[in-house]
Amino acid sequence: MTLAEAPAERRPELVVGVDFGTLSGRAVVVRVSDGAELGSAVHPYSHAVMDRALTAGPAALAGAPIELPPEWALQDPQDYLDVLRIAVPAALEAARAAHGVDAHDVIGVGTDFTACTMVPTTADGTPLCWVDRFADRPHAYVKLWRHHAAQLQADRINTAAHARHESWINRYGGLISSEWEFAKGLQLLEEDPEVYAAMEHWVEAADWIVWQLCGRYLRNACTAGYKGIYQDGAYPSRDFLAALNPDFAGFVAEKVEHEIGQLGQPAGMLTAQAASWTGLPAGIAVAVGNVDAHTTAPAANAVEPGQMVAIMGTSTCHVMNSTELAEVPGMCGVVDGGLVDGLYGYEAGQSGVGDIFGWFVDTAVPADVVAQAETRGLGVHEYLTALAAEQKVGEHGLIALDWHSGNRSVLVDHELSGVVVGQTLATRPQDTYRALLEATAFGTRTIVEAFQRSGVPVTELVVAGGLLKNRLLMQIYADVTRLPLSTIGSDQGPALGAAIHAAVAAGAYPDVRAAAQVMGKRTVAAYPPNEDDARIYDQLFAEYTLLHDYFGRGANDVMHRLKDLRRRVLTVGRPAAVLAEVTS
Q1: Rg for the chain (alpha carbons), in Å?
Q2: Cα 261 → chain centroid
Q3: Cα–chain-centroid distance for residue 73?
Q4: How many CA atoms lie within 13 A of 89 on its CB side?
Q5: CATH homologous superfamily for the domain 301-488+521-553
Q6: Local structure of 571: helix, strand or coil
């Protein structure tokens, strides 16, 4: 007898988690009683990341896509709806085929999103890029988390916050990122005031997708706190915003402020329209939105104080809980209840990790190495990892800085860029590849030590995400950080975490911590540190720190100067107004 044929009282309750990543969305069907993942599906975004040209809109359809300036990263929200229409039904079908489950047994759906990813909308939630007169305006599109073109606005926010002694700035390690809501909103105002004026809601994509599912707009407590400068029940004041730009004074009251939804709570019930898209039953609970990294902590059953969860993919986000409220330099934020009720949730991160490895493989590996990998039946990443694993620690003679996509923590400066020191004519691709792997581990140790020094102890490093499949990388992280490295027991961490929140929203568990203990899973101390290698890494980390501080703390500002020169060169031939904006 299949599950579908079982009596109703014996049929398992199910939930669905949907993870909206940088390049694709995935759905997973999860059993509430034990967290078992019964079916999943992935749908790649048709437009992926638009970082060079606007490949959506009338101009693109006419074969003349609009060129984008440096540091931009846009998306089309239609791709998100396609995930609901394609990935969710496919995951349900996979679960039915493998386990005989029925969609009518689903009691809730939860979602997670990359952050800070912003959607400018009309009053009813229509993205401005879907409004005909704005369809070719880049600022009308979704600004993805890795849109770093608002660094100048972020710098002004930080300068003004410190000059005015704004108390909230210390809750963010002293610096606001160009990735976040206010910097991106100020850029929108100053570069396309017409789109800004038409925008009635500045919406986190995490909240926009929930809006589409249940017909109700709530700002989730996670992104409001970490990305929207919402602390102790308030946003930055109107006076502060006016000091940045008089036309920005009403940003909070007119574009941002809205009801806050708490994590794990129901935002509403699935509408009939969303049910038709997804194949889920109308009326089931829709959980309040959340961030991909933050949902992963309960998926790894790692929500207790001292457990730092590193969600490693294209970038890495570090999240952890503590009983203490502390000011950690360069953290992305601390929010009361930002991960689970009753604890202070902390966030930090690295803007580039898997992206850096991918960049190197795509642009810097010679054809003969690619051919050797193919001959051995390996991908280039796997082949370089195998070659790098044969080396002793320090053998390649290199140190790299992991700033190819800027620095999120602890410097919070996306004008920084990558460095490799020590290259010679004898340097091989596997040498540089291993140095880049190690650089990202040094970046994580820098973050861990900042927390330790600030009175927030880190006792266990828990890794989730696609990169945990690289055993060499995991051992490097354990050796560099000198922490026991645990691994999540799921390939679908964010989606599983979203499903856990759905189970809580549907009333199956009293809170997220309780649900995590049953539905979450991890392998404790899967990679213990190797003391001999750790001692050598201590020496290399000291060299990394010297470079980190030399280039990142003002001793040598060459990276900023090069970025500025690049912007000026790329504006040649553009309208004078644009050139004046960039060079002012």
Answers
A1: 23
A2: 20
A3: 13
A4: 11
A5: ATPase, nucleotide binding domain (3.30.420.40)
A6: coil
Q: Is 486 helix (H, G, I), strand (E, B) or coil?
A: strand
Nearest-angstrom CA–CA distance, 341 and 513: 8
Question: What whole-number distance in Å separates Cα of residue 76 and Cα of residue 56?
Answer: 7
Compute the residue count for the chain: 584
Higher pLDDT, 568 or 246: 246
- Average pLDDT (520-546) is 98
In the chain, list all ranges with CATH 3.30.420.40.
7-147+194-238+262-287, 301-488+521-553
CA 506 to chain centre: 26
Instruction: Supply the DSSP string of 43-55, one letter for each residue.
Output: EE-SS--BSSEE-
Q: What is Dmax (Cα atoms) for the chain?
A: 73
Q: Does the CA dihedral 202-207-211-213 come out positive or negative?
A: positive
Q: How far apart are CA 534 and CA 344, in angstroms?
A: 31
Structure tokens at 226: 């970490």
Q: What is the pLDDT, as a whole number, of residue 11?
A: 81
Q: Which residues contact 168 (CB under 8 A, 6 or more apart)?
A: 161, 229, 231, 236
* 3-state DSSP of 94-134: HHHHHHCCCHHHEEEEEEEECCCCEEEECCCCCEHHHCHHH
In the structure encoding, which two tokens stand for residue 359, read together?
A: 């960049």
CA dist., res. 573 & res. 578, Å (int)? 10
> pLDDT by residue (tens digit) across 162-191?
999 999 999 999 999 999 999 999 999 999
Q: What residues pair up with 307 in beta bridges, in sequence order?
A: 460
Look at residue 171 in the predicted model and tell me its pLDDT: 95
388: tokens are 């790098």
Residue 476 has φ and ψ, to the nearest 5°, of -60, -45
Dihedral of CA 64/66/72/73: which sign?
Answer: negative
Residue 493: Cβ within 10 Å count: 33
The DSSP 8-state label assigned to residue 168 in this structure reads G
CATH architecture of 7-147+194-238+262-287: 2-Layer Sandwich (3.30)
The helix or strand, by DSSP H or E, that contains position 311, with its residue range, turns out to be strand 307-312
- The values of phi and psi at residue 348, to 5°, are -140, 180
Convert the pLDDT of each residue in 234-284 to its tens digit.
Answer: 999 999 999 999 999 999 999 999 999 999 999 999 999 999 999 999 999
Residue (of 227, 219, 239, 128) closest to 184 by Cα position? 227
* Cα–Cα distance for residue pair 67/572, rounded to 1 Å: 13
**H or E stretch including 56?**
none
**Residue 12 backbone dihedrals phi, psi, to 5 degrees:** -75, 145
Q: Is the dihedral of CA 261, 264, 268, 270 positive or negative?
A: positive
CA distance 106 to 574: 53
Give ∠ CA 94-97-103 in degrees, rounded to 5: 70
Written as one letter, the residue type at 366 is P
* Helix (H/G/I), strand (E/B), else coil: 139: helix
Q: pTM for the full model?
A: 0.90
Write the DSSP symbol of residue 174: T
**CA angle (28 as vertex; 269, 55 as ends), nearest 5:** 85
At 443, give phi and psi (nearest 5°): -60, -40
In this structure, the strands spanning 460-464 and 485-488 are: parallel
